[in-house]
């Protein structure tokens, strides 16, 4: 049986900081002759191939530290700047290997990291921060190895790391190290350069701002980068300094007069380069040790933005050159790229500082400048201007909308051509004319347009409503530009151009129009109906690109979902279901998204009972749909239609249902309890299948058929009341009464059911009377006068006691028992 204690999974940490599973195997530890030492071996459980072979090295620097985590995980960092981990199935196996690692490194296995815990505990017990701290070895070539080991051993402990940072800072050690670096480089002392790499990397991980200020000063930063070129894991040193001094060039598009600002820009670029390119990817233990470096770059960027924002001459020159027609294309390209990077830096600002930043740009005329730039032919310049515009829209769409409307008001007297070059129309035209086959720029611009026309971010004040004003402007001056490709491509029964790029563009336009249908009210409604937009859109259901046909269906589905009769009449008047049904039939028996989308549209009409559309569909397209039986949607529509016709042909049916729905539970307090008991105690034989208060909706009933079940219900109620009166009034009554009841559905304040007899009374021969087929001969046809006060309270009311006595005397000789034995037993109990 396999020893599960030694069963492990091997993981490595990739460049994306994700753990990759390298396989499952069994771990062992033993002496390896080739490596001349004790090693860790992992062989795959499937084919026994070697998954991992790691020699236990005495800890000489930070890279040889092992960590024990979660009782079953051992993690360490390799010299090649990637991390490995062993995940054990059982804790016992993990403890066994951990003891062997600690034995080789001479450490205590009771802790979770292979460090000198005895020294640490002694320091924590006897030392405090007021003590002199660590004593650094002399900064000499022959002591570099000792210094590298000291730095590596101090990093795992926060206390030792703090003391090391203080010692390096107080003794001016960084400048001494950089002098040694220059000596080693001149002597080509590779061993010393490798030690300096480890030392300088460790100083970065001390995470101390005071040290960074020294390292990133103008006189030190290039030597610091030089130290980090000599990675001992690489066969040849990198050439970072050569790139920074010869390849990378600082382009000063507008002369910067402030020397402090120039120095800050240079410094930030170089530190960013160190973070991104020079320093190795931090291990899982080191990624939190560079937080101060991130903060250093962040605050530098904030300071640069603030200094540029305060320099009015600089910004004035910038926008003047941007909009100057005499500026050559290369210069303008550099200016736009600078402005783009300037805006990108602003994203690091706090909200209040960002507000001030964009207000400054707005006051300097950034939107008119962008309008000029977007009208140029240079694709790269337009792309950068689009990115700048996106920053403005995402920050404050109201500011952009206000500029566009003011621009329109200023140009009221100008030509139509001038109207078409409004800023928002330029954005639409760039979206339409995007040359990218994947329409990446068009997608970005469509998102910006969607933000601009979204009523959710529009302001409403006491004096004006931004939504009303801007949407009126947009539909008057811009909507025709947006819909132009759609109208141009749908002049016939099929799309004029059906290539992939055109279809993608039309899909983007439809997505924006669908958004308008959902969020705008009368503006989009008037535009769709006046321009016959829906009919044009439905031409696209014939496209060979399924995604475009589905976009067209989605557009119509959103319109139907509004349940607006203006839209419904427009659809019916123009027979706009015809292309949908044609697309459904052309799709055939294929069960795909097209099929489901069309069926869902008709199902919505059925479920929501949109009467006008239901009648239109059945009356015009039923023959094409009647054979579709794999779903019940169309048969359900037919049923809805027949129910509508039934109600139209028999208005009394609707009125009866209304009465029953409105008054069914409005019963007199005296009869409510008895009525419920009668319903629950009625024999199954007495309640036949056909006896329903409301007749089936799919069959046409005459007035007599409608009254029959109600009469039967009243007959049973009458018999029950008769029996109870007999039991309760036995001492004073000498016979049984057989009252007949008259029904009135009038809602008047006083309703008389006695004289004259109305058409609603139950006369002999009518449904429910003793002589009718719907009831048995349970009572004599004598009548009783009943008056209802206060309107229609219930279908039946109790007669007065005097009337009961008179009727009992008249009918005293009748001995017929009106109730079956089951009912008598229930009543007597």
In short:
With 829 residues, the protein is of the alpha+beta class. Among the domains are: 4-116, Roll (PH-domain like), CATH 2.30.29; 135-284, no CATH class; 302-564, Leucine-rich Repeat Variant (Alpha Horseshoe), CATH 1.25.10.
Structure notes:
Residues 713-728 have a biased composition (Basic and acidic residues). Belongs to the SMEK family. Regulatory subunit of serine/threonine-protein phosphatase 4. The chain is of the alpha+beta class and 829 residues long. Among the domains are: 4-116, Pleckstrin-homology domain (PH domain)/Phosphotyrosine-binding domain (PTB) (PH-domain like), CATH 2.30.29.30; 135-284, no CATH class; 302-564, Alpha Horseshoe (Leucine-rich Repeat Variant), CATH 1.25.10.10. 56% of the residues lie in helices and 7% in strands. The strands form 2 sheets. The chain has a 7-stranded antiparallel β-sheet with strand order 4-3-2-1-7-6-5, covered by helices on one side. A two-stranded antiparallel sheet has the order 8-9. The chain starts with 6 loop residues before the first strand and ends with a helix.
């Amino acid at each position: 049986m396999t020893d599960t204690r030694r069963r492990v999974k091997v993981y490595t940490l990739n460049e994306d900081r994700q753990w990759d599973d390298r396989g499952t195997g069994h771990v062992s530890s033993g002496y390896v002759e080739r490596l001349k030492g004790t090693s860790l071996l992992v062989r795959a459980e499937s084919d026994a191939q070697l998954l991992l072979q790691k020699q236990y090295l005495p800890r000489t620097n930070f890279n040889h530290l092992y960590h024990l985590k979660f009782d079953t995980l051992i993690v360490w960092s390799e010299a090649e700047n990637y991390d490995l981990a062993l995940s054990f199935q059982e804790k016992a196996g993990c403890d066994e290997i951990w003891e062997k690692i600690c034995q080789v490194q001479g450490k205590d296995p009771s802790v979770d990291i292979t460090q000198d815990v005895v020294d640490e505990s002694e320091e924590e017990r006897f030392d405090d921060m007021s003590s002199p701290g660590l004593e650094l070895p002399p900064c000499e070539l022959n002591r570099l190895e000792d210094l590298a080991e000291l730095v590596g051993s101090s990093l795992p402990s926060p206390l030792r790391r703090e003391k090391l940072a203080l010692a390096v800072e107080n003794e001016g050690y960084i400048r001494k190290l950089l002098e040694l670096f220059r000596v080693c480089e001149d002597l080509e002392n590779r061993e010393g350069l490798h030690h300096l790499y480890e030392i300088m990397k460790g100083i970065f991980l001390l995470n101390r701002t005071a040290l960074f200020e020294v390292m990133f000063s103008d006189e030190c930063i290039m030597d610091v980068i030089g130290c980090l070129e000599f990675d001992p894991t690489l066969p040849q040193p990198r050439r970072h300094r050569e790139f920074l001094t010869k390849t990378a060039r600082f382009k000063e598009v507008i002369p910067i007069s402030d020397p402090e600002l120039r120095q800050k820009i240079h410094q930030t670029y170089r530190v960013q380069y160190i973070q991104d390119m020079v320093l190795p990817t931090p291990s899982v233990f080191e990624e939190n040790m560079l937080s101060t470096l991130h903060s250093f770059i962040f605050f530098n960027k904030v300071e640069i933005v603030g200094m540029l924002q305060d320099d009015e001459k600089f910004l004035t020159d910038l926008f003047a050159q941007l909009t100057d027609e005499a500026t050559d294309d290369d210069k303008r390209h550099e200016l736009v790229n600078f402005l783009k990077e300037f805006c990108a830096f602003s994203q690091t600002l706090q909200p209040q500082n960002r507000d001030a930043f964009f207000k400054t740009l707005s006051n300097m005329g950034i939107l008119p400048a962008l309008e000029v730039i977007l009208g140029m032919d240079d694709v790269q310049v337009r792309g950068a201007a689009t990115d700048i515009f996106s920053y403005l829209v995402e920050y404050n769409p109201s500011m952009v909308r206000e500029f566009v409307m003011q621009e329109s008001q200023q140009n009221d007297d100008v030509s139509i051509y001038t109207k078409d070059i409004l800023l928002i129309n330029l954005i639409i035209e760039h979206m339409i004319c995007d040359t990218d086959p994947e329409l990446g720029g068009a997608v970005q611009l469509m998102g910006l347009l969607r933000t601009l026309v979204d009523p959710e971010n529009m302001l409403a004040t006491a004096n004006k409503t931004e939504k009303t004003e801007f949407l009126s402007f947009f539909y008057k001056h811009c909507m025709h530009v947006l819909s132009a490709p759609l109208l141009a491509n749908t002049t016939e029964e099929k799309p004029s151009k059906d290539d992939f790029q055109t279809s993608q563009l039309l899909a983007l336009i439809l997505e924006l129009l669908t958004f308008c249908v959902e969020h705008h009210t009368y503006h989009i409604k008037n535009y769709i109906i006046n321009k016959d937009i829906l009919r044009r859109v439905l031409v696209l259901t014939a496209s060979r690109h399924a995604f475009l046909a589905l976009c067209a269906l989605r557009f119509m589905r959103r319109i139907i979902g509004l349940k607006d009769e203006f839209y419904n009449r427009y659809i019916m008047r123009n027979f706009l279901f015809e292309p949908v049904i044609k697309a459904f039939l052309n799709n055939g028996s294929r069960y795909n998204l097209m099929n489901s989308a069309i069926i869902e549209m008709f199902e919505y009409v059925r479920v929501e009972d949109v009467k006008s559309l239901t009648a239109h569909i059945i009356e015009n397209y039923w023959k094409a749909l009647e054979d579709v039986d794999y779903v019940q949607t169309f048969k359900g529509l037919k049923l809805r239609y027949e129910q509508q016709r039934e109600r139209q042909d028999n208005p009394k049916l609707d009125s009866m249902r209304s009465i029953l729905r409105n008054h069914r539970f409005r019963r007199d307090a005296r009869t409510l309890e008895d009525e419920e008991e009668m319903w629950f105690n009625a024999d199954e034989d007495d309640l036949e299948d056909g006896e329903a208060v409301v007749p089936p909706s799919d069959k046409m009933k005459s007035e007599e058929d409608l009254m029959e079940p109600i009469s039967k219900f009243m007959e049973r109620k009458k018999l029950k009341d008769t029996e109870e009166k007999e039991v309760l009034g036995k001492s004073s009554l000498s016979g049984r009464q057989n009252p007949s009841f008259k029904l009135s559905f009038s809602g008047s304040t006083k309703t008389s059911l006695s004289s004259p007899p109305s058409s609603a009374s139950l006369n002999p021969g009518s449904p429910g009377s003793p002589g009718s087929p719907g009831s048995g001969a349970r009572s004599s046809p004598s009548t009783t006068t009943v008056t209802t006060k206060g309107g229609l309270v219930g279908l039946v009311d109790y007669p007065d006691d005097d009337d009961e006595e008179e009727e009992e005397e008249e009918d005293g000789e009748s001995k017929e028992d009106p109730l079956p034995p089951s009912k008598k037993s229930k009543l007597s109990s």
